[in-house]
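Why predict the complex rather than its parts? Because the way molecules touch one another can change local conformation, and only a joint prediction can capture that. The input here totals 584 residues.
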Amino acid sequence: MGGYLRVLARSAAAAAAVWTAYRADFLAALLGALVETAGRVAALFALVRAGVLDLAPDEGLVYLGVASIAIGFFRCVVGPNLVAFSERVWEGSLEFVLLRPKHPVFLLLVQTASPWGLPDLLAGAALLGLGHRALGAQAAVLGSLAIGPALLVAYLFAFLLALVGFFSVHVHNLVHLVTGLFAAGQYPVRAYALPVRVFLTFVVPVYGAVNLPAELALGRVGPAGLLGLWAGVAVFWLLTDRLFRLAVRAYASASG
Amino acid sequence: MEDVVVAEDLSKTYLVAEKDPGFLGTLRHFVRRRYKRIEAVKGVSFRLRPGEIVGFLGPNGAGKTTTLKMLAGLLYPSRGRVRVLGYAPFERRPGFLKRITLVMGNKAQLLWDLPVLDTLRINAAVYDIPEPEYRRRVERFAAMLEIEAILTQPVRKLSLGERMKAELMAALLHHPRVLFLDEPTLGLDVNAQAAVRDFVRRYAREEGATVLLTSHYMADIEALAERVILIHRGRLLFDGGLRALVARFAPYKEVRLDLEAPLEPAALAPYGEVVGVEGQSARLLVEKPRLTAAVARMLAALPVRDLAVEEPPLEEVIGRVFREGRLG
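Output of the joint prediction:
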């Protein structure tokens, strides 16, 4: 376990070094993401104030805070790593990952990161801070504990879909699709029509990954929700591991 | 001692999508894919002993890289049995992966935007190399490869030769016992090629490592390998010593002529197989039993200024084996 943490820490340090190697691009990325996040916050806040979402303003801030963190995580970690995975399949450098004595799925999940989602992450934390009046102390702790496994569920689900890259090679559009689906969680799933609600709960785990931590924090769901999230992590990890092994068996690699 | 690498009847078949050109071909390809079976490796068997350095030769598309990838556990064999260090490679157990490496001359594992040391630090974590040991290895390899000065420069700023040396360093940091080297000197200048060869030879000697090396540069093979395995169209053609290869497939000598005046190849053909004519120089291959008589006739009949008889270059011998597709 210590070895995996060391790989994670060094990969993160390398990713940060890559961002800051190109300072002008890094600053442009930060500025662009800040502007976009501000627009999204303004839109949701308008809907809350208009009463469309049937939420108190503080509750709306909590939903939006968790959603912003999820979106930031997708931009910082999920998207870049799925694209990097697809590029590795395309150029034939997946070999270097498969030859490592650590779990290849873990190495693919942590191989890179991007600064694009940092403002979303910061905005998410700030919104949760602003909405803290809506939270009970115990529920707030539960909600905080739920964010980690919720993001893992979303990440493993997205990676599971990206495994199609073993066969179709390019998964860029799939990455956009998955990111878009999880972005739908910035509004509570119950605000959508029933078929969409079912889809976003049982087909794509948007409810579990984006709304559930907010509902735990608001005390709308009990501690069982947290256990459910960890069970989800375990199920998605096992599924990803199995499918990855099967896909690697059929992997033909790019010609050398 | 137990063999380090055992390949028995090793075969690999790929399915490759085929597409007709043009818009209609694109439409058909989108709606219904057509696949062709490619038999890249067909029933190849060989064994490597501990500490051996073996050249693995074949023309492009012969199945060398596919075989290496099956040995390294990257590809699942369609048929046959393979064992490396007692492991089934495709299971890719950590104990196996910590003791092998694969270097691909046309692919890079170094992080492009960062200095070499950043990749090395990640590799040290991946292979659980303790910090003091990591530093010791980096120092030793950097000195052996003479790249101490470039370790803190971004990889994208390095020359091809420097990059390849750094790739080797990254690939060997965990001290593997078995090295699969696929064209490690590809595109390098003569000096860089020599440096890479020296490093591989020294590493293999000091660590007792087993090396399977593919290269299109015969200088690599002659400098490093005493044994060669030839593969052509997926089949094994020859497995044996370099000298045995030359004796078996080159029952001729090369005669180099320096002429007083240029001659047409047709004028030289009666004396042997003309392999090259350039101005007043010519190269002929003459069968060994006919050599003395042929040389005497050339000296008598041709305007010869100088004549030399040599063993044919290894490239020539191997090229002939592949052209004729002779089975060993």
